Amino acid sequence: MTHNEKLLYLIEELQKELPQFNGMKIPEDIGMQGRLLRTYMNMRAPEPISSEFLKIQDEYLKEVVEEKGIVIGDALPPSHVNSRIVLWNGDITTLKVDAIVNSANSTLRGCFVPCHFCIDNIIHSMSGIQLRLACDEIMKEQGYDEPAGRAKITPAFNLPCNYVIHTVGPVITKRLMESHCNQLANCYKSCLELASEKGLKSIAFCCISTGTYHFPREKAAEIAVKTVMEFLKTNLQLERVIFNTFTEEEYNLYKQML
Fold first, then answer.
1. Among 37, 44, 47, 129, which one is most buried in terms of CB atoms within 10 A?
2. How far apart are the C-alpha atoms of 41 and 202, rounded to whole Å?
3. Strand pairing of 71-72 and 95-96?
4. DSSP H/E element including 244
5. For residue 82, how many C-alpha atoms fall within 13 Å in the half-sphere facing its CB?
């Protein structure tokens, strides 16, 4: 199977599971086909699927990751303030590190909104449907939604990193409160502690809660840098902590903090 044949196979198989899309014509444009596959993956409930589907999905996603280009976390230059801290602007799903952090929602099962721009959606889309299945297993065992400030770990499946650490940040609906700041600091602490407990050497943080959860970016960067710096003072397990930004504005905020 060629790369495009795999893409069509995956679309057709997922379409069979969604009666409302049965018989819908698949667009000829490759880019639109990719968005359609992501749409179906985003909408799909965490249910078992055939080993053949997973085999072809894994092959397809690995090819997508390779085409995007893999960034070796250990090769990124450290910051001047601390040789164990890195500031990097780019796509977190291309990073080869021990773990990347996902800013998740309280269900921890990923974003179900088709092709949404949030990091949760992007990570699940690039990892594959196994990630939602793994998260669903954790949440069924837990029996309640994930509170803000805690962390869970899963394999990364088709991402170049080894693990994904999921944490739920605070949601800001009106004004920022001290409790929100404490919850965000706890997100970073929980992720760092979990990574250290698992014997991981490197971790990459996205900008937790600053997207659809509306945490003020400057304050979030301040909390992130302060919490990580404090943790590294007493922890020697982690050799590299990467602050990953996706916009020039975020990058400049972290650069100023560091």
1. 129
2. 29
3. parallel
4. strand 240-245
5. 22
What residues have CB less than 8 Å from 109, skipping those under 6 apart?
A: 46, 132, 135, 136, 139
Residue 83, sorted as left (phi over 0), alpha (psi -120 to 50) or beta, turns out to be alpha
Q: Which two tokens stand for residue 223?
A: 């909390």
Residue 33 contacts residue 7 (beta carbons within 8 Å): yes
* Contact assessment for residue 243 and residue 88, using Cβ atoms and an 8 Å cutoff: yes
Judge contact between 104 and 149, C-beta under 8 A. no
Contacts of 49 (CB under 8 A, 6+ apart): 129
CA dihedral sign, ordered 135, 139, 144, 148: negative
DSSP 8-state code for residue 175: S
Q: How far apart are CA 244 and CA 32, in angstroms?
A: 28
124: its two tokens: 């699940």
What's the full length of the chain, in residues? Answer: 258
Residues sharing a CB contact under 8 Å with residue 29, sequence separation 6 or more, in sequence order: none
Per-residue pLDDT of the chain (258 residues; tens, 9 = 90+): 999 999 999 999 999 998 888 778 999 999 999 999 999 999 999 999 999 999 999 999 999 999 999 999 999 999 998 999 999 999 999 999 999 999 999 999 999 999 999 999 999 999 999 999 999 999 999 999 999 999 999 999 999 999 999 999 999 988 999 999 999 999 999 999 999 999 999 999 999 999 888 899 999 999 999 999 999 999 999 999 999 999 999 999 999 989
- Judge whether 56 and 65 are in contact, CB under 8 Å: no
Q: Which two tokens stand for residue 167?
A: 């944490």
Measure the CA–CA gap between 60 and 41, rounded to whole angstroms: 13
